[in-house]
């Protein structure tokens, strides 16, 4: 019944997706903040286990659920009323209720972006499996973008499930008539070509300069984009990503807001380009799509 209503009333589905996106955005803030810390704790535990002379410390329970979210300044727990997406931040005027320490504007910004992009996906695809898959794709890309901007990491715990989900969706639902999911052949070739292309660029750059131009996480993210969008869309994605990254990198250097020797994460550009291609493939890259097919 609900599905029939949302299919018959696109505006209701868009509104519902927007509200759901706000709530998911609140959770993505947790993922962006905690997942790198969880990975660091795992790496420290592995190193301690290899060092027989240093017994590993007692593990603390720290994951995406526990401990409860708290103010980083004073440690006061955040109540449910203080955790309503966007509204709580506005009501608190961007400050902790206990100690008045400032709360980063990034938290409501992530929530707003997630809500807006979720509503856009609902409007683009309409109610159905395509929209559900596109929402998962969108949310994962937002989490990866935030983590890469903060730490220059693209965790396997996000990129690899995204890759396998794209291949699974292609195997079960792929038909090649919509941006997602594509047919299985396009998805498999896209995953392989996405990984191997950046792997080749990485090693060629390393041989030529002796430096590492990107990380293995970029290979896996590009492979995941290939699994979702098909091999035909890899060229538009990499052109969008490289072009926007080059322009922004030059601007940051010219404005002296970024030193030349400091690396710029490439994952966010891949993620943005992949989302744009998914959303606008018929309009933005339709000529290329017809040629590639």
Give structural notes.
Helices cover 68% and strands 0% of the residues. With 293 residues, it is an all-alpha fold. Helix 5 (129-151) packs antiparallel against helix 6 (156-173) and helix 9 packs across helix 10. The chain is globular. The mean pLDDT is 86.
Structural class: mainly alpha
The number of helical elements comes to: 11
Shape: globular
The sequence of SSEs as H and E is HHHHHHHHHHH
Please give the share of residues in helix.
55-70%
Please name the defining characteristics of this protein.
mainly alpha; globular; single chain; 293 residues
Topology:
Blueprint: H1 2-8, H2 10-50, H3 87-91, H4 106-125, H5 129-151, H6 156-173, H7 184-209, H8 216-229, H9 234-254, H10 267-284, H11 286-292
Helix pairs in contact: 1-2, 2-4, 2-5, 4-5, 5-6, 5-10, 6-7, 6-8, 7-8, 8-10, 9-10
Briefly summarize what is shown.
With 293 residues, this protein is an all-alpha fold. The chain has helices at 2-8, 10-50, 87-91, 106-125, 129-151, 156-173, 184-209, 216-229, 234-254, 267-284, 286-292. The chain has two domains: 10-127, no CATH class; 153-286, no CATH class.
């Amino acid at each position: 019944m609900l599905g029939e209503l949302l299919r018959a009333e696109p505006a209701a589905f868009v509104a519902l997706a927007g509200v759901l996106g706000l709530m998911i955005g609140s959770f993505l803030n947790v993922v962006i903040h905690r997942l790198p810390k969880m990975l660091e704790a795992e790496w420290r535990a592995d190193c301690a286990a290899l060092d027989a002379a240093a017994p590993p410390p007692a593990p603390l329970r720290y994951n995406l659920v526990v401990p409860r979210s708290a103010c980083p300044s004073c440690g006061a727990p955040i109540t449910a009323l203080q955790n309503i997406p966007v509204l709580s931040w506005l009501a608190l005027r961007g400050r902790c209720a206990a100690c008045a320490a400032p709360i980063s504007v990034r938290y409501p910004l992530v929530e707003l972006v997630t809500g807006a992009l979720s509503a856009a996906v609902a409007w683009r695809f309409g109610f159905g499996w395509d929209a559900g898959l596109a929402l998962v794709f969108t949310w994962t890309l937002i989490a990866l973008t935030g983590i890469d901007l903060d730490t220059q990491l693209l965790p396997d715990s996000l990129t690899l499930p995204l890759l396998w989900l794209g291949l699974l969706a292609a195997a079960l639902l792929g038909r090649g008539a919509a941006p997602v999911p594509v047919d299985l052949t396009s998805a498999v070739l896209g995953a392989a070509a996405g990984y191997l292309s950046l792997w080749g660029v990485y090693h060629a750059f390393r041989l030529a300069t002796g430096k590492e131009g990107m990380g293995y996480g970029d290979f896996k993210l590009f492979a995941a984009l290939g699994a979702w969008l098909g091999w035909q869309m890899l060229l538009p994605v990499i052109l969008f990503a490289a072009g926007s990254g080059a322009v922004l990198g030059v601007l940051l250097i010219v404005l002296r807001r970024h030193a030349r020797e400091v690396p710029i994460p490439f994952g966010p550009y891949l993620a943005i380009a992949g989302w744009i291609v998914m959303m606008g493939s018929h309009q933005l890259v339709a000529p290329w799509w017809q040629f590639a097919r």
